[in-house]
Specification:
The protein has 199 residues and is mainly beta. 14% of the residues lie in helices and 42% in strands.
Length: 199
């Protein structure tokens, strides 16, 4: 069974809600439509963003500030799964050297899970929302895995933004069939989320 046969993560969209929001530790996407809030940053994750529906949210350890929130989008032709991670970095994550190391660690984790992964593109990408002048790192891979019950060639993008509010890192991962025209949908999804103004 491949890694994408289970529910996968993704994220996006800051929006005001009339009902009280839940903390990420107490909320459950199967039981509530309330937004999730990452308390240290104020990052808000609504139940849906356009075609994307929230499917999971977790803190990596009790009381941890390291979180991942997942969203899926289903079309008649294909599915898109995406995750947004928010976590504190050690030391000065705003430096180029520290950010390069954090990004390489993320790529190493991907390649350990998918030894056949081939790098097909690597560049920089603009941040959305309140930090459009900030640039992130982006790498795109292709590999074969089970996805929605079918062994197929997948395309997976890894994005990382460092030094958000000096301390925080924000990472995205989006995966879809390699033949899918998913980028416009994902970019609309990503830009729907206004980052909190973290100090």
């Amino acid at each position: 069974m491949g890694i994408f046969d289970t529910k996968v993560f993704a994220a996006l969209a800051l929006m005001l809600m009339p009902a009280p929001a839940l903390t990420i530790e107490s909320a459950n996407p199967k039981e509530t439509g309330e937004p999730y809030i990452h308390a240290p940053t104020g990052f808000v994750f609504p139940a849906s963003v356009g075609e994307f529906k929230r499917v999971s949210a977790r803190a990596f350890g009790p009381g941890s500030d390291n979180i991942g929130v997942g969203y899926n989008a289903e079309t008649p032709e294909y599915a898109i799964v995406a995750t947004i991670f928010v976590y504190p970095g050690g030391g000065d994550t705003a430096t180029e050297q520290a950010c390069d190391l954090a990004f390489e660690n993320r790529q190493m984790n991907l390649k350990q899970a998918h030894p056949d992964a081939q790098l097909i593109e690597r560049d920089t990408i603009d941040a959305p929302s309140v930090a459009p002048e900030q640039h992130g790192r982006r790498a795109v891979y292709e590999f074969r895995d089970n996805f929605r019950g079918n062994l197929q060639l997948l395309r997976s993008e890894s994005l990382l933004f460092c030094g958000v509010g000096a301390k925080w890192l924000i990472a995205y991962r989006v995966t879809a069939p390699a033949t899918a025209d998913y980028r416009a949908k994902f970019e609309a999804f990503r830009h729907s989320l206004a980052w909190p103004r973290v100090k």
